[in-house]
Specification:
The protein is built from 8 helices and 17 strands. The chain has about 290 residues and is of the alpha+beta class. Bound molecules: zinc ion. The site of zinc ion has 6 residues, from helix 4.
Length: about 290
């Protein structure tokens, strides 16, 4: 009888643990990169529509998006290193603060924010009521991205973020994928991924010989752009550059077996890139626990 009771109690706690787990994976997912811990912070999952694709043929759509839609998401990422709390992009600011709270991080504990570019789904969480959301953070912004937004008449939201963080802003020049350059901070290098916006930048994380590339908006429609990297999207500022950098970076991560994380990759937003030997192009293999 006593044994049965213990057994039932175990089942009860196990099912509770499973429920909590299911809730926690709804919005966050954690992945180790050496001594770094990368966490996906989901701002939402959804379906994108073929109307945003530029250069997708009917045949491509029949094969990879037969109903005219594809899985999509908006993500930010958090990186815990042995000495810093790093946020990579700030999403819309929708689930961001609750997601951070769920991993024990209050906004004042964020030491560094790395921005891939300054579209609203990446800088939405940077300000709250016009004030910096991350009062103690140093902000890293690619110089060409800053220059693009500061040109007369461009997005007010980007200008507001630049102004609010002006004393904390570190402008830098990204390096080319595979090139040599000084890290921005220990274990973090900015990699040029231009085209989606003129300064769009990926961040290479390196710890204890392990690497991972957080590639921002290198893709918006994984289902189509992995097999066909030549397909662009309507919100690419310079589609030809976006295509060229997508091809270059896919080649680089595949050849070097570097896992990737993306701001518009469906949950868990992290995985590996492999060549598709049969169909051509690439496939994405989502990370599992
Ligand atoms: Zn985006």
């Amino acid at each position: 009888m006593r044994k049965l009771f213990v057994f039932l109690l175990t089942i009860y706690f196990m099912s509770t643990a499973v429920n909590m787990y299911a809730q926690s994976v709804g919005n966050v997912f954690t992945f180790k990169v050496g001594s770094f811990e990368l966490t996906l912070l989901s701002e939402g999952q959804g379906q994108g529509n073929k109307g945003v694709l530029v250069g997708a043929t009917d045949e491509m759509l029949r094969k990879y998006a037969p109903d005219g839609t594809f899985p999509n998401a908006t993500n930010a990422f958090f990186v815990k290193t042995p000495d810093r709390n790093i946020l990579i992009d700030a999403g819309y600011g929708r689930n961001l603060f609750d997601n951070l709270q769920s991993i024990g991080i209050t906004p004042d504990k964020v030491d560094v924010v790395l921005l891939t570019h300054m579209h609203g789904d990446h800088i939405g969480g940077m300000l709250r009521e016009g004030r910096p959301s991350f009062p103690n953070a140093e902000i890293y912004l690619p110089q060409p991205e800053r220059d693009y937004w500061m040109t007369e008449g461009r997005g007010q939201q980007a200008r507001d973020v630049i102004a609010a963080y002006k004393d904390k802003l570190h402008l830098f020049q990204p390096i080319e994928a595979g090139g040599q350059g000084k890290p921005l901070i220990a274990g973090v290098t900015g990699i040029a991924a231009y085209g989606h916006t003129p300064g769009h930048t990926a961040y290479l994380l390196e710890s204890d010989g392990n690497k991972l590339l957080v590639w921002g908006d290198l893709t918006h429609a994984m289902a189509i752009q992995m097999p066909y990297p030549q397909v662009a999207v309507t919100y690419d500022v310079t589609p030809e550059d976006a295509v060229a950098y997508r091809k270059k970076i896919l080649e680089y991560v595949e050849a070097n077996k570097i896992p990737v994380a993306g701001m518009h990759i469906a949950f868990p937003g992290i995985g590996a890139v492999a060549k598709d030997a049969v169909a051509g192009g690439y496939v994405f293999i989502p990370a599992t626990r």
